[in-house]
Amino acid sequence: MNKEHSKPKAQRSEDSGEPGSGGSAAGLAGLPADYPQFLAEIKARIAAARTRAVLAVNSELIRLYWEIGHEILERQGREGWGSGVTKRLSSDLRRMFPEMKDCRRQTCATCGLSRKHGQIGRFAHRL
């Protein structure tokens, strides 16, 4: 293999997509002087909003799993549910939501055990 082809090519500053990154001054011609700063501020706001969105989704999923675990424990105590029910529940949920990787019998049981033993109680109350 040719050594030149195995080396990653250095990105030219004109290709970085960042105004004011050392590229051609002609790329900023006709734009306000504070355009690079304005663009950077918008980019930071978008990144922050995306992060908040991901955190909100994660919080909702944790809350949901916590509630599911509580409901499973209640039914186990009240109706005598055994491992066969949680196994079937897990299987049915995986079939209904194939994109969800965490609908496993073990996860269902873990949600219930965590709820029962308060392992994540201090965290969950903040959700």
Quick summary of this structure?
The protein is mostly helical and 127 residues long. It is built from 5 helices and no strands. It has a domain at 37-124.
Please describe what this structure looks like.
The protein is an all-alpha fold and 127 residues long. It has a domain at 37-124. Helix content is 63%, strand content 0%. It contains 5 helices and no strands. The protein is rod-shaped. The protein starts with a helix and ends with a helix. The relative contact order is 0.09. Mean pLDDT is 75; it is low at 1-15.
Rg value? 26 Å
State the helix count. 5
Q: How many strands in all?
A: 0
Strand content: under 5%
Write down the overall mean pLDDT.
75
Low-confidence stretches: 1-15
Principal-axis shape equals: rod-shaped
Q: Sketch the major β-sheet.
A: none
Structural class: mainly alpha
Q: Share of helix among residues? A: 55-70%
Order of helices and strands: HHHHH
**How far apart, in Å, are the first and last alpha carbons?**
54 Å
